[in-house]
Amino acid sequence: MFNNLSEKLDKALHVLKGHGSITEVNVAETLKEVRRALLDADVNFKIAKEFTNRVKEKALGQNVLTSLQPGQLMVKLVKDELTELMGGDVEGLNLTGTPSIILMSGLQGSGKTTFSGKLANYLKNKKTKKPLLVACDVYRPAAVDQLHVVGDQIKVEVFSDKGNTDPVAIAQAGIAHAKANGHNVVIIDTAGRLAVDEAMMTEISNIHKAIQPQETLFVVDSMTGQDAVNTAKAFNDVLNFDGVILTKLDGDTRGGAAISIKSVVNKPIKFIGTGEKMEAIDVFYPSRMADRILGMGDVVSLVERAQEQFDEEEARKLQKKIAKNQFGFDDFLKQIQQIKKMGNMKDLIGMIPGAGKMMKNIDIDDDAFKGIEAIIHSMTPQERTNPSIINASRKKRIGKGSGTSVQEVNQLLKQFNQMSKMMKMMQGGGGKRMMNAMKN
Ligand code: GDP
Fold first, then answer.
1. Cis omega before residue 353 (within 30°)?
2. Cα torsion at 432, 436, 438, 440 (round to 10°)?
3. What's the CATH number for 3-86?
4. In what residue span(s) does the SRP54-type proteins GTP-binding domain sit (predicted)?
């Protein structure tokens, strides 16, 4: 996420870190580089200029020049300003209605349908919410089918009316259906076009007026940079929406949209989409995002994601197994699946402070576990519980079956063996013994 921008800002701020003495000249030089980095990230010129002016004002006001650690103070000032620009505080959804109605708007391909599913899933997992998805795209039957596929996947009901050509009527019928069937949230997915046009605006505006949603969300593809900002403006003029959803932040996004959009439409970014999977949704925290942009990682979000996937019951079972020395490859597979649910690897690594920078040139395969999983799947159930019975000819077969080499099979078995030993030692409270084992 935002690799290029992070790298350039880091370089710009490094100028100051390296210098023993700070002068007005090198503060100006640094900020010039910061501005260039922002412009390269497709941040609007005016916004970038105001940004650096404000940082400069604060820097001079706070006596960066005489501060003991001016480099760090500058990083802090830039971070605070980035946070402010992206929205300051976090703003949640207004879910006060009975049912609460959420209307999705945005261009075709922005990720509306995918996000509708993600949001339904997110709310459903909150336990107190029973969402209903409503398909209001009357032009593309495929879009309606897509929402049904999403609904099936996350086990959320989808309301649609395929022959009906009136999106307002469908939305209203959807809400009535929700009321009659105990749904307390209705998420309405609408039709988009490839570009802003009058017919689309009239249609979404009519739906908006008729159903009076508590939340109107504008979904935008962050890869589209300044275009994203212009589209946001057009939709906001008509809908006066409540929040922005930035999708596709997992891609090679330059960052311009995330940084500029709030100050142009004066509406908060509420969620971000970070992948195609239903779990790839995050609440948008301006301050955490600023940390990530400045390469400081985002440990809080990382821990939260881990917690979301954490199953206490499973953890207890696992602990018992480890204590009894019964941790097998099936348990290992489960662990891998949990990690995978947390998001794509590159994204996760980017959340570890400093790691994003270190790993930036290393291509991390999102299917990093594929080989390991294939090897485990090629083992018999007995072999998975007791890998020591795997002999040389079985290793060959497993290699063949999984499309890997005997060496790879051996390596996995060896690592698994080491891991099991270490787990046993940790269980025995032998921290010292573990350290010794690691040394050997
Ligand atoms: P809609 O036309 O606005 O409903 O857009 P869709 O929901 O159909 O999304 C368009 C494409 O973008 C699909 O291929 C989605 O899988 C993909 N997509 C949506 N959100 C994300 C995201 O956060 N990250 C990535 N990488 N792809 C996404």
1. no
2. -170
3. 1.20.120.140
4. 268-281
Q: Whose CA is nearest to atom 12 of ligand 1?
A: 111
Tell me whether strands 131-135 and 185-189 are parallel, antiparallel or unpaired.
Answer: parallel
CA atoms within 13 A on the CB side of 32: 7
Q: What is the pLDDT of residues 219-270, one digit of tens each?
A: 999 888 888 889 999 999 999 999 999 999 887 777 888 888 998 899 999 9
Q: What is the DSSP string of 263-328?
A: HHH---EEEEE-SSSTT-EEE--HHHHHHHHTT---HHHHHHHHHHH--HHHHHHHHHHHHTT---
From the CA of 250, how far away is ligand 1's center (Å)? 11
- Give the whole-angstrom CA distance, residue 145 versus residue 160: 9
The sign one gets for the Cα dihedral 332, 336, 342, 348 is positive
Domains of the chain by residue range: 3-86, 100-294, 306-439
250 CB under 6 A from ligand 1? yes
Please give the distance of CA 61 from its chain centroid, rounded to a whole number: 36
Q: Is the CB of 277 under 6 A from ligand 1?
A: no
> Which tens digit of pLDDT belongs to each residue from 292-329?
888 766 666 677 777 676 677 777 787 787 777 788 88
What's the rounded Cα separation, in Å, for the pair 71 and 80?
Answer: 14
For residue 207, give every residue at least 6 positions away whose Cβ sits within 8 Å of its Cβ, in sequence order, or none: 103, 136, 167, 168, 171, 188, 190
Domain 306-439 class?
Answer: mainly alpha
Helix 370-377 with 392-402: angle, nearest 10 deg: 130
Strand, coil or helix: what is 407? helix
| CA dist., res. 398 & res. 408, Å (int) | 10
Distance 63 CA to ligand 1 centre (A): 47
Helix (H, G, I), strand (E, B) or coil at 231: helix
For 4, 84, 228, 262, 283, the CA distances from 256, given in Å and listed in that order, are: 11, 15, 9, 11, 19
Is the ipTM above a cut-off of 0.90?
A: yes
* DSSP reduced 3-state for 202: helix
- Does residue 387 contact residue 413 with C-beta atoms inside 8 Å? yes
Pick from 245, 276, 284 the residue to mutate for probing ligand 1's pocket: most ligand atoms within 8 Å of its CB: 276
- Residue numbering of the annotated binding site for GTP: 106-113, 189-193, 247-250
Residue 114 Cα to ligand 1 middle (Å):
6
Q: What is the CATH number of domain 100-294?
A: 3.40.50.300
Helix runs in 155-285, H state only: 167-180, 198-211, 225-239, 256-265
Ligand 1 contact via 344 beta carbon (within 6 Å): no
Atom of ligand 1 nearest to the CA of 107: 3
